[in-house]
Amino acid sequence: MIKLNNLKDLYSHLARNTPRNTPIIGLKKEGNRYYYRPLKSYDEWSSDVLLGNFSPKDHFFPHDETLFYFKAQKLIESKEEIKPVVLWGVRPCDIAGIGELERMFNQIEYKDPYFMERFDKTLIVGLACTEPWPGCFCTSVEGSPYESKGADIFIYPVEGAYLIDAVSKKGEAAIEGLDVEEVSDVSQLEADRRRAEDKIEKYNFEGIADKLKSMVDSNFWDWIHSPCIGCGTCAFVCPSCHCFDINDSSKGSRGLRSRQWDSCLYEGYTLETSGHNPRPSGSQRWRQRLMHKFSYFPQVFGSYQCLGCGRCARACPVNINIAEIAQKAMEWME
Amino acid sequence: MSNSLTNQIREEARKLLSARKVDLVIGYGEGDNPMRTRPVFVDNPEDAGKLVWPSFGLINLANYLLRYKNTLHRIGIVAKGCDTRSIVALLKENQIDRDRLFIIGVNCPGMLSRQVAREKAGEIIAAENKGETWLFTTVEGKKEVSCFELMPSNCVACRHHAPVISDVVVGDPITEPDGDGYDSVREFEKKSAPERYQYLMSEMSACIRCYACRQACPTCNCDECFVDITQPRWVDKGLDETDLAIWQLIRTYHQAGRCVDCGACEEACPKGIKLLWLTRKMNLVVKERFGFEAGVDPEALPPLATYKKDDPQEFIL
Description:
By secondary structure, chain A is α/β, with parallel strands linked by helices. Chain A has helices at 7-16, 57-60, 92-105, 113-120, 169-175, 188-198, 208-213, 220-225, 233-237, 282-301, 311-315, 322-331; strands at residues 2-4, 24-30, 33-38, 64-71, 74-77, 85-90, 122-127, 153-158, 161-166, 244-251, 254-261. In chain A, a hairpin with a 2-residue loop joins strand 2 (24-30) and strand 3. In chain B, strands 2-1-3-4-8 form a five-stranded mixed sheet. A three-stranded antiparallel sheet of chain B has the order 5-6-7, with helices on one face. Chain B is of the alpha/beta class.
């Protein structure tokens, strides 16, 4: 680990030592919200905001992405060249979210070339959360505000300075040449981590995958769905929701095939061509949402598909809080 | 949260549920922080304490009545002025039955908006009510904002604070402000066409097609929304600026003579788009041409449901 007094030194080093015109994408204020956007300079970075209103997933898995073009019977690959980028100042929950997307899009049988090319060409610079926000609950879903896993480089703010850890080989290569001496004593970080974790609200989700499995026919689902208006806001702000819809648009014999974000809470999500809808009610759709995140995903991949960022509860027009709901499921008795 | 209104609402709900006059009462409940409000569905007199009169309550509860369209439930509903206008509009469109409905109307002093709070204070981490003001902890430090400044444009423009239809009314009557509430629209109309176009396009192009606006709106109740229809496809699904504008414009047109300016759409928008500029302009056009305001007169037929020989039609080419 190395110590820097000014974080700008790391930023400038990365800007200099990456191929020309490599964008550095970080949180930037636009209107009165914060988004991951290419930064023109270090000073454009909103360093004091913990989480963007939207996660950085748009960068790997764009909201609206052209897959290919076609002309009559001929297929033309999408010509957009994917360039390397630096993703700057990403919090541990969002990094975990990127990891969940990668599990989904990088399977032995199916690899998503669009996602994977972006993923492979991104250098992730993580940042520890010294001051978690109300509504954060990462420690209840196996996360931590000081978790560096998944990042290439990870920044720990300490008293008046920053400890920089090269987590991956890619990260090591990226900070090579940064002329600072190594720090050997990093024992302070453990106390810092505990201090940050103590500020986070705790839930107990132990055994939730099995508990939910036993609740398939429960009237719990009617109860949790009742305030939901069925908009897609939660899925759109979520760092790990990855469902998409595929659409063609054409004019004459020319056209393109694209994909857009979708949400399991939409009525049309499971609507079949025949007109049959296997999940016709809001309660069934909510069952899918909660079970996907807290039951199916843990069973298949061994980890929650919810990272505890709390964005969905903050953005939800009717304040549905997935952590509270999961906790209620744990306590639910028929 | 107003304690007096909260207590009155709880009392009315308790009476209704105890006397078994309704099967459930739909009202506002507390959210996970002082700025958040959740709809609650109370079916037991002992749970009436879950009901509150919120500060940030720009949710139109009439939206939930559509769920009970084909059930036999007798429903009590807590309704502010604009919600009762939505109820009238839904009754006119035969979406709900009056005889299964018990309306706890509230003389609404106006709501506060989280969108406005974000505009005024920034990214809010924690909030605390200090009576006439709110103290926000934001990423840029502490900020205190008066309740008056936190009112959304629709509450400022509102001239129907009292319920237009109800079975019982709670709260003290409110003196309606002068004017018709459309001054801000008339002010906007004075801008040049390119200025208006640019402003509206910049708002519309921020849309992410999550449809929170549609879902928050009681009037957006088509069985199948035109954007979801794929055969034929009326509008492409992506984020092309033209498609975004078409979505917003057609949504607005479909609201002609139906929008009650409750502001639920704008409050629900995760991008903070100023959706009410379009619908309020539409409301003004309908008012000026047809002398009609949605949901205000329980007897009047909406302009789209009626035809008069002397209807203005100079706009038809």
